[in-house]
């Protein structure tokens, strides 16, 4: 789905002013920004839920907003999952989903099929008030899917959950995004969720849509808003885990052929994401021997960006074109006499599979 537009909404003390934008939605698009930047408001404007919005909006060429005129939310075919699932409290889960199914266009999946897909079929006869937070969010997801939306909007769906339920719901959303062609707009202010799920990132700041980047581009900018304490800068590499070799280590191979060797972490052959913190990457002028770091990757230094008086963020290009960040001291930068364009070795101390 392609959303194009330019929307404004004036509220007391807050103004949404997107500026002209074109969002090609495919997989998960994260809507990322600090609290109060207008993410929820923008999502509600896209869904047609804000009566006072003005401007232009089209979805695949269909007009959704023209000046003050608004296509109704019901005629936009958008599914919504909010922070806290609003379910009918006096009904069972099945009752809630049956209600959604009756209102859905005919020809869609039935309640048992969707419940099984979302992993809540064993709770269908439970009263809604007995559902856990994670189950409530799954119920909201199932209810949205029953309406066969063209676009699924998720507004901080994990925020009311504990870490275990968060991890399980992230897995489910990721799996849905991989296996269906349903585009998702996912509101969050958590960079880890963006790195885990997103294919692209729309950044918001003070009511403005400041930029739209692929995840790789968003992580290749030294001043990326995704780089926040305590982790700081990080890189995410896409690739596939292969079976362990004679050395007992598992190769992680990027589409461009860069191979990292990992301590065995399971093997399923599907695309995985590897997260590398910039502070876990060191640099050497020549390939070092006699060190315990498994991964020594040839790279080209493209940029040096001072973080403060003592620390520098180095942007590195791997041989397959993907970018890797290294945080080094200003002292090391001078000692190694680093300048952009140089060929170096990146020494990777630690990696984490994040999906
Ligand atoms: N119903 C409302 N009436 C008036 N002001 C509102 C309303 N909802 C939100 N606001 C204000 O609009 C601004 C943007 O809020 P919004 O919820 O869109 O931000 P957000 O980026 O989604 O924040 P968060 O991450 O905290 O959910 C804030 O200043 C907020 O206080």
UniProtKB/TrEMBL annotation:
Domain Mop, first and last residues per copy: 290-355
Sequence ranges assigned to domain ABC transporter in this UniProt record: 1-231
InterPro entries named in the record: AAA+_ATPase (IPR003593), ABC_transporter-like_ATP-bd (IPR003439), ABC_transporter-like_CS (IPR017871), Mo/tungstate-bd_C_term_dom (IPR008995), ModC_ABC_ATP-bd (IPR011868), Molybdenum_import_ModC (IPR050334), Mop_domain (IPR004606), P-loop_NTPase (IPR027417)
Gene name, Swiss-Prot/TrEMBL: modC
Entry-linked Gene3D superfamilies: 2.40.50.100, P-loop containing nucleotide triphosphate hydrolases
Database matches in PANTHER family: ABC TRANSPORTER I FAMILY MEMBER 10, MOLYBDENUM IMPORT ATP-BINDING PROTEIN MODC 2
Keyword rRNA-binding: no
GO molecular function, one term: ATP binding
Keyword terms of this UniProt record: ATP-binding, Cell inner membrane, Cell membrane, Membrane, Molybdenum, Nucleotide-binding, Translocase, Transport
Protein name (Swiss-Prot/TrEMBL): Molybdenum ABC transporter ATP-binding protein
SUPFAM superfamilies assigned to the protein according to its UniProt record, in alphabetical order: MOP-like, P-loop containing nucleoside triphosphate hydrolases
């Amino acid at each position: 789905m392609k959303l194009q537009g330019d929307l404004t909404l004036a509220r007391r003390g807050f103004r949404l002013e997107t500026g002209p934008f074109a969002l090609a939605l495919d997989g998960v698009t994260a809507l990322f920004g600090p609290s109060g930047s207008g993410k929820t408001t923008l999502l509600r404007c896209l869904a047609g839920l804000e009566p006072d919005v003005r401007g232009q909006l089209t979805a695949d060429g269909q007009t959704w907003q023209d000046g003050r005129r608004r296509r109704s939310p019901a005629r936009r075919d958008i599914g919504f999952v909010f922070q806290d699932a609003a379910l009918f409290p006096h009904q069972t889960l099945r009752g809630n989903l049956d209600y959604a199914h009756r209102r859905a266009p005919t020809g869609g999946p039935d309640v048992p099929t969707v419940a099984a897909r979302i992993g809540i079929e064993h709770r269908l006869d439970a009263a809604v008030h007995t559902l856990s937070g994670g189950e409530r969010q799954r119920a909201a997801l199932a209810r949205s899917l029953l309406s066969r939306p063209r676009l699924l909007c998720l507004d901080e769906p994990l925020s009311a959950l504990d870490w275990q339920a968060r991890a399980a719901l992230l897995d489910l959303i990721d799996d849905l995004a991989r296996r269906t062609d349903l585009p998702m707009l996912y509101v969050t202010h958590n960079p880890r969720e963006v790195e885990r799920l997103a294919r692209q990132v729309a950044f918001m700041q003070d009511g403005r849509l400041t930029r739209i980047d692929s995840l790789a581009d968003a992580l290749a900018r030294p001043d990326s808003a995704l780089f926040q304490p305590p982790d700081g800068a990080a890189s995410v590499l896409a690739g596939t885990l292969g079976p362990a070799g004679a050395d007992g280590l598992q190769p992680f191979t990027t589409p461009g052929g860069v191979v990292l060797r990992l301590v065995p972490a399971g093997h399923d052959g599907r695309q995985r994401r590897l997260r590398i913190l910039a502070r876990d990457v060191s640099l050497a002028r020549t390939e070092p021997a006699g060190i315990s770091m498994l991964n020594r990757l040839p790279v080209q230094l493209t940029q040096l960006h001072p973080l403060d008086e003592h620390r520098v963020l180095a942007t590195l290009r791997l041989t397959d074109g993907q970018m890797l960040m290294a945080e080094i001291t200003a002292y090391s930068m001078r000692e190694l006499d680093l300048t952009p364009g140089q060929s170096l070795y990146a020494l990777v101390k630690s990696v984490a599979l994040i999906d």
